[in-house]
Every structure is written in C-alpha cells, then in structure tokens.
Amino acid sequence: MRLDVVNVKKSFGDKEILHGISFSVTSGRAMGFLGRNGAGKSTTIRCLMDVFRQDSGDFLLDGQPFEPWKMRIGYLPEERGMYQKNKVLPQLAYFARLRGASKADALRSANYWIDYFELGEFKNKNLETLSKGNQQKIQIAQSFLNEPDILILDEPFSGLDPVNAQVFKDTIADFVRQGKLVIFSSHQMGYVEEVCDDVTLIHEGDIVLSGSLDRIKREEGRDKLYLSLAQDEGQDELTRALQSAFPGLLVTNSRDGEGLILDTQGQALQDRLLKWLAGQQVTVRRFGLYEPSLTDIFIEKVGETA
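Given the sequence above, the corresponding structure tokens read:
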C-alpha cells in the first residue's frame, strides 16, 4: 500500500494550520511523523482520519481517495480516551465491535492483545485501578484490535518502562514485516530512530524534509567529519590549531559536547587531516565521517526558529 498526502490545507477560522503539505507513506516501512508542539502533526492525522475535513488537497491510498471507514485502522491518539471506570476486557471488546468485528471475534481479539501484553490479571478490573504504564499498554492494545492494515500511533511510548517499550518496538517491527502501513509520531527521537525507516518533519504547517532516514542522515552529514579526543584533553586549543592549519575549515562543537564537527565545505581534507592529527600531541578517540543523529537534524531544521 501507498498513502499519499497531496497538497493538504487546513484552517481554523482565519488561521491556516496546514499550508499545502505533501508526503508519502509506504507499507513495510514505518514512517516517523515529527514536529514541534503546534507544528500540525495532530491536525494532519485528524484530517487523515476524517475527524476534521481538510479545506483542500487529497489523501490517496494506492492512487484512490482514502476512505478510512472502509479500512482496518489502528489509531492511538495522543489524548487518551478510554473509559477509566469501565472494565478492561469489555471495553476493548466494545472498541473492536465498533470497528466492525463480530461479538465472538471482538472478544477473541481483545483477549489476545490483553494476554500478549501480559495484562491478563487486569481483564476484569476498572482501567483507573491500573498503573500509568499498564493503562498505556491497554491503550496500545486497543490500537492493535482486529489486526489493522494501517497503524497510526501518536506518542505511543509515553509511560512505558524500557522492558515494555522493547516489547512494543518488537510488535511494531513485526507489523512492518507483515507489510502494514505504519505512521508513528513521537518527540522521543531515540525510539523514532530505532523503529522508523522513513521520516517526515513538519514545521509551522510546512513539510521541511521527508524521505529515507538513512538518506537524510547521509545528506545532512555530507562534507562533514567527526573528531573526538580523550576525555582529559581540551578541544578549544585543537579547534584553534585546526582553523589555523586548514583555512576554510569550519569547526563546531557537537551538540553532546563530546567532540568536534569539521565541515570541509567540499574540500578533500580527510587524509590531510588524519596526517596532521598524527603529528599532534593528542589522543584521538574517534575520527571519521559524521552522521548526525535525528535529534541533531531536528534541532538544526526547526530549533533555530523557536
């Protein structure tokens, strides 16, 4: 499957939230949908789900108008909406039936996902009696009901401990391997890097970048090298020496403060830099091509304007 978002615009009153955005999602490749608070992520997802109707533009599935009510969709909204005073199993079965399952299939699916996330002891307890982490697992379980073909997950890792987060990551990876279409929105960049093959970054209602995460990292790291020294050696003196020895070389501290990013600006300097470093009285811990993290890219693209 291929989902295309084509020139979608959406306004509330006289304020335009989405300024004609376009991007694509393909099955078998999880897509991370990223942006600062208020960037337009939730509005996009709600228009996709037909909660809001876009002012113009199209959502196309394999070239045809996307009709969410005809698809098996698992949706985990950022604002959780399950019933705190209702028992876990009956309300999961209820949600499954709302999505078209028979009574027997709804109960089977609800039991399966409760057991899958090791929550069997809470089947007949009110949701409000569960811990925050277990409530989140129930919320996640409802998004997997009825074996959806499309998964839309908004901030799904909130409240999960590392063990449960790994179980969830494995589950998403399994759905991706099955050829499901997965859209994943989160501010936790580490999880996005682990789970997603593609990313789309939206900022103030415009798409800033979209495509393969590996390709984006290569492009953002082009012409740049990474250098770090042993912890007991200063970087300030080395920065001055590098800029003196290699005019035109741009040297900046990495965001984590543990190394230097050397922007060669297209010059073939790697071999010369390595030879120069060998003649200095420094202990090089790492020297090689620079690959920015997703956090680095995110801050570079949208952080400076904040």
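The chain has a mean pLDDT of 89. Try to locate this feature in the token string yourself.
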